[in-house]
Design brief:
- The complex is a heterotrimer of chains A (308), B (255) and C (286).
- By secondary structure, chain A is mainly α.
- Chain A is built from 13 helices and two strands; from the N terminus they run αααββαααααααααα.
- The radius of gyration of chain A is 25 Å and the shape is globular.
- Chain C has a two-stranded antiparallel sheet with strand order 1-2.
- In chain C, 76% of the residues lie in helices and 1% in strands.
- Chain C is mainly alpha-helical and 286 residues long.
- Classes of the chains: A mainly alpha (308), B alpha/beta (255), C mainly alpha (286).
- Chains B and C meet through α2, α4 and α7 of B and α7 and α8 of C.
């Protein structure tokens, strides 16, 4: 028994000194998130900034993307991203918000227990699998249904992007609805409103900033999605000319990077322009996410004030 | 007349939390060794705050301003250089709500020793039986020491918490309303063990009622809105208080 | 009066029906996707398919190198992201007081969560492949995926840590525990199921991603297995991308088989996470 005694004492010595070593280590982990965001920006910048010197602004803001002949017009790509995202929002927002309302306000408990994990599975489906199904199932279906020359269109991209952003919208919007105090609903029901009226006139308005955040993050997710849109939206770098373009092939910013980065020479103009597109995407997500989290933080502060 | 040894001497202690909830205003108090000192008064008077100063648990809270001295065996424990870990081993604490850690009964009792790196089986088993016996719990749990502690009743859990702070043989035990959630039988068990324990330990207790204060106090301190109104031997304070406010409170006119 | 009540009741009934239909449709579509891939793909899955490399320009043979590659990449991601993510969560939940700094950290984390996966790919290419000269490799891909996975692991771990009652910490500290002892002996073990759930959900996302590994780790076709972390590798998601867009005349069955294996990988992880979470909830005593 005495022979085992010294070993634990040694361990004790390690633990005593462990705190001064571990504390900085743990702090460093905490700061790492900031470091990574900065590093990502710095690396995008260092590779992409050169494009602004190499390509004239007139060229960048033109409607022609044809890198082999040094046409680097970004408008078709930006337009393609906006179009596909808008299309996705058109049905992901209503379906997402209504599903959240259903889960939080209407569904019986067992239904909730089924719905939430199933929707989580949708959120976890690899985008390449959805893209694969898009090529094999959705695109041929759309082609026949709408009598199009090809089913690989902005619409196909929109539908799948919508599916990808629905889980984000549902889970954040549902949290927001859940956070509305029970008493609001009770007060509304007590003066004779139906549950349906209560949802629309009381609960949803009370949760509006959270629901708005949900929509914003859902759309943010859609703009950044890559594989699915690359696989199903046809990849034609043509400036979309209105909503009709939903039925034509388009190419998004993300798909352009993914499709072309593998083939460009490191350090070429084309390479720099692709990083410049990366900077644009980074800045979009920065704006979307920072404003969403500021919104959430402000909301929290307000509710803390109300509660205290 | 027994000569009392001073265990803790508090000099001019001021303290304010950053949310300005409870504060201490110029406390001067001498806590004698091997006695039960009772801190009582209406809620928000500063009793619990003072208790938490005595083993520096306030380090976990946002304290805005603090001044004065708290001398523990002559050493000012508010100094930055004080080994807080060592201090907390010497000053045990039992809280109002019993908190059984999510371990077995055995590991709960020995948790303080585990933190200190004590691994010798003989020392551990001795400490286990001694502290559980002192807390009047040994007979009830000796056959199921490896059961989860949460399975114990509220009263048993509170005595477990007492045993847990006794296990590492502190010099002072702080108790913050330790019987507030307990039935009368458990309460009297705890109070009886306190009377035993004061032979060995210095006890500072925030009681959950004036009656309990009167029952157990060797020395009693009456706190009102962050000030120490009166500090005298329990017998005198509860029968013949010097201050009108103490008298009113003890007689139940407010509080 | 009564007629208006009746009207409102009808309106509510219609509204609730609509919501139920929408929710049911959502479920139906998801289940249909899973079932469709299962039915079309299950015929392709055989030991020969799982454990042999592709042959004949990928039009025959199996997907073994891609399975192994995805396993390596996921493992590599875990190696970097799990300690870092848990460390960051411990910092936020246990060490830091709320301040401007922690707010900036939180904003950085949400921001990391929102950066498009293809931008991670660019970053990984710029930093790991080119600047640090790891080349197109498992190492570069894993580190890229790890940074992408970090926000999921941090936020779920922090939530799990915060769900441990504060009183446990106070007791541990009052008995002379250091902050680290308290975290290690009391908080972490209690939060473990929640942390595991978060880690698995994060890794699930990493395992299914294509864009971040396209330029950092993935190889179109490799006749042999990677032998070091500095080798490129095949990976299931990238392989599925390749065989469904880049190889003309690809047998559909092999495509579905690959999709099914990837799906089983990912959905399996998701189910394990859900299981751990619900079992821990059922067992919780406080």
């Amino acid at each position: 028994m005495d022979t085992t005694a010294p070993r634990p004492r040694k361990r004790l010595a390690i633990f005593r000194t462990a705190d001064p070593v571990l504390t900085p280590l743990i702090k460093a982990c905490g700061y790492s998130a900031i470091l990574f965001v900065i590093m990502i920006f710095v690396f995008l910048w260092s590779e992409g900034f050169a494009a602004l010197g190499e390509v004239s602004l007139k060229n960048l803001f033109s409607a022609r993307w044809y890198p082999i002949e040094e046409y680097f017009g970004l408008l078709p790509l930006i337009g393609g991203s906006l179009l596909v995202t808008l299309g996705a929002a058109l049905f992901a927002v209503p379906i997402g918000v209504l599903t959240a309302v259903y889960i939080s306000e209407v569904a019986p408990r067992w239904m909730r227990e089924v719905l939430k994990p199933v929707i989580e599975i949708l959120g976890g489906l690899p985008s390449v699998v959805l893209g694969f199904l898009g090529i094999l199932v959705l695109a041929p279906f759309l082609r026949k249904l709408l009598d199009l020359p090809t089913g690989l269109t902005a619409l196909a991209g929109s539908i799948l992007l919508g599916a990808i952003s629905i889980p984000t919208i549902v889970s954040i919007a549902e949290d927001a609805l859940d956070a509305v105090p029970r008493s609001y609903r009770d007060a509304s029901l007590a003066i004779g409103a139906t549950r349906w009226q209560t949802i629309w006139r009381v609960t949803l308005p009370a949760a509006r900033s959270g629901v708005f955040t949900a929509i914003m993050l859902g759309i943010g997710r859609a703009i950044g999605e890559t594989m699915t849109v690359m696989m199903v939206s046809g990849n034609a770098a043509v400036l979309p000319s209105g909503l009709r373009a939903l039925f034509e092939p388009v190419r998004t910013m993300t798909a352009t990077i993914a499709a072309e980065m593998g083939e460009v020479a490191t350090g070429s103009v084309h390479y720099h322009v692709l990083f410049l597109i990366g900077i644009i995407l980074f800045l979009i997500s920065l704006v979307v996410n920072v404003s969403a989290s500021l919104l959430i933080q402000r909301k929290q502060k307000r509710s803390e004030r109300v509660l205290s | 007349m027994v000569t009392l040894m001073d265990k803790i001497v508090i000099k001019d202690l001021y303290l304010q939390y950053s949310d300005q909830t409870e504060s201490l205003r110029g406390i001067n108090l001498t806590i004698p060794a091997n006695q039960i000192s009772v801190l009582f008064g209406p809620a928000g008077g500063g009793k619990s705050t003072l208790l938490r100063v005595l083993n520096r648990l306030n380090d976990l809270t946002d304290v805005r301003a603090q001044s004065g001295e708290v001398l523990f065996d002559g050493l000012n424990i508010l100094e930055k250089s004080v080994d807080v870990i060592n201090l907390r081993r010497k000053v045990g604490m039992v809280f109002a709500t019993p908190v059984a850690l999510p371990f077995s009964i055995r590991r709960n009792v020995l948790y303080g020793l585990e933190l200190a790196g004590e691994h010798r089986p003989r020392v551990l088993s001795e400490a286990l039986e001694r502290s559980l016996t002192q807390a009047a719990l040994w007979d009830e749990v000796k056959d199921r020491l490896d059961d989860p502690a949460v399975a114990l009743s509220g009263g048993q859990q509170q005595r477990l918490c007492l045993a847990r702070s006794l296990a590492q043989q502190p010099e002072v035990i702080l108790l913050d309303e330790p019987t507030s959630g307990l039935d009368p039988i458990s309460t009297s068990k705890v109070e009886a063990s306190l009377q035993e324990l004061k032979q060995e330990y210095t006890i500072v207790l925030v009681p959950h009622s004036v009656q309990q204060a009167a029952r157990v106090a060797d020395m009693a301190a009456f706190f009102l809105q962050g000030e120490l109104v009166e500090f005298s031997p329990g017998k005198r304070l509860f029968t013949n208080p010097r201050d009108k406010r103490t008298q009113d409170y003890v007689e139940g006119r407010f509080g | 009066m009564t007629s208006s009540t009746a009207k409102r009741q009808r309106q509510q009934a219609a509204g609730f029906t609509l919501l139920t239909v929408i929710a049911a449709l959502t479920i139906f579509v998801i289940v249909a996707i899973l079932a469709y891939i299962l039915i079309r793909g299950v015929g392709a899955v055989s030991p020969g398919f799982l454990f042999t490399p592709p042959s004949n320009g990928m039009k025959a043979g199996g997907i073994w190198p891609a399975i192994v590659g995805t396993f390596y990449l996921t493992l590599g991601t875990a190696l970097f992201a799990v300690p870092l993510g848990i460390g960051a969560a411990i910092y936020l939940a246990e060490y830091a007081r709320e301040s401007t700094l922690t707010r900036v950290i939180r904003i950085a984390i949400t921001n990391l969560a929102g950066i498009p996966s293809v931008v991670y790919g660019l970053f990984g290419l710029g930093l790991f492949v080119l600047f640090l000269k790891f080349g197109t490799s498992i190492l570069a891909g894993s580190m890229t995926l790890a940074i992408m996975t970090l926000p999921v692991i941090i936020s779920t771990t922090e939530e799990a840590l915060r769900s441990v009652p504060q009183s446990f910490r106070v007791v541990s500290v009052s008995l002379g525990g250091t902050r680290w002892q308290t975290v290690r002996k009391v908080v972490l073990p209690e939060a473990l199921p929640g942390i595991l759930t978060g880690v698995i959900l994060g890794l699930e996302r990493a395992a299914g991603e294509t864009a971040p590994i396209m330029f950092t780790a993935a190889a179109f076709f490799l006749p042999r297995m990677p032998s070091s972390p500095l080798d490129p590798t095949m990976a299931l998601p990238y392989h599925l991308f390749v065989i469904s867009t880049q190889v003309p005349g690809m047998p559909v069955q092999i495509q579905f088989g690959t999709a099914l294996v990837l799906l089983v990988f990912v959905v399996g992880m998701n189910l394990v996470a859900t299981l751990i979470r619900s079992r821990a909830r059922a067992r919780r005593q406080w």
